[in-house]
User: Fold these one by one.
Assistant:
Number 1:
Amino acid sequence: MEETRAVIPMRPLTFGELLDAAVSLLRAQAPLLLGAAFVLALAEQVALGPLRDWAHMSPPLYWLDSDHIGQSWLVFCFGMALEAAILALLGGFTGAAAGPGLLGQAVPRKTLLRQVGRRTLPLLVIALVAAALSFVTALVLMLPWPFVYGLLGLASPALMIDRVGPFRAVGRSFKLAGRGLRGVFIRVGAYLSWAAIRLALGLGAAALLEIWLGRQTTLHTIALILAWAIVDTVAYATLACIDAVLYLEVRMRVEGLDVAIGRLRRLDRPVDLASSVILGAAVR
């Protein structure tokens, strides 16, 4: 496999370095990651459209309607579940790209797509688990949601990088992200930061569309759906890259992944991140 410059440093990272590495990973595979994120984000907006109408949630913010609080809260929670599923699915793409990104290996996009395709079924299982847990925890006034969201985020990268089953990947995610809760805090912090960015960009785009196209027109509705989908595309792709980089970084910090890779390279042996030499007893 062709060697290139690693986009993920092989050492424990600070929060800023982790974000930089995530952006580098996104830039390295931008067409694939942004394309997949756009398809999923657009599907999300289309799926939520009729439900928002049913719950009387008005654009552009689609916030809770005080006269239909029960219906709008259910739709809000369903939206949180969709986001969790989307990030889990995108985590398959970013997880497939992160391993070669750490080792400095150039991988064609078709190869990454084949890797994700071979793991589609277990990836869907993780997405369903993430969606179900996010929906249930969001229903309870969002109180347990930050912990569950933070603990679940490393499952898809674990599935792709370690090549384990979906339930073992979920267990790996809970174990590694829960170690000192550092992974939880980083993932929740990244989500909240991007939530603010999405809100600013989405409302700004909505204001411009209202000036250009007016309100209550079919063209305005379609343009608003596309605007939110584009904003979410960048956010989802970036958050999924953060998950993949965070998974590798936590493994370096907790399991000595960088030390194991360095030892193999000194012995001039091939490096497989899913091999028993690298994983050791971590997944047993």
Number 2:
Amino acid sequence: MKKWTMTITAILLLVMITSGYAKTDEKTNEVTHIIDVLKKSGATPDKWTMYFRGQTGFASKGLGYVKQAEELKRNYPEFSWVVTEDEAGHYKMTGLFERNDIGVREKMTVITYPQKDQSASYFIYAVEGLVNTNQNWKEIQNLIDSRVEQSIGGNPKIFSCVTGTYGDKMVVDLYSQANELVRAFSGDPVEELKEETFVSLSAYTEQWEQAIYTGHQHKMNLQVALRSEGLGSGTTVTIGTPIITSEY
């Protein structure tokens, strides 16, 4: 069985053409909206994630990265930092921090790569949590606003995703269920992928401002994917905006 995987790094690099930017408070509203839609459809939402991407600019090779790494460690000492080098001039620095007080996990990633005679970098801030009834979205929003303002600044590219499951006793026709979920957002499908145990629909809804363009130049800001885990194992559902940025 094919496993359709999209890595965060690849997606955020490829999806460069956007139509408008979303504010961080709009994105938390989108996450709660997705959670509500999943609940109403009979699914159990499990986990939510938000990614914020910004360009950090250009610097001299080598020294620019070292300076940036030292600054991040100094500004965010609560994070546990790891640095890796995939190939000459390509660096990845990742910091993790568990916020047990509000039930979220934070991740900061800086990827630096050569560009002509300089080094270019981009920054990703990710925050994720489990879906539960005690979610304090106001505190989560305050945290996100503070982190994004400090690390990225204005107009970040934002990606949100919620995963869930349909129980093993619930019979789900994948394609019909995917279309039903798209309709719940007043969306119009623009592209689709259908297999026996997997369906993915890309769609556009006017409910959300931020959008991207598919490889066939269709405007989209909603993606719904369902995968059957086999007889008696239920169905996994993933909804992302403007696109799913995790494995599904």
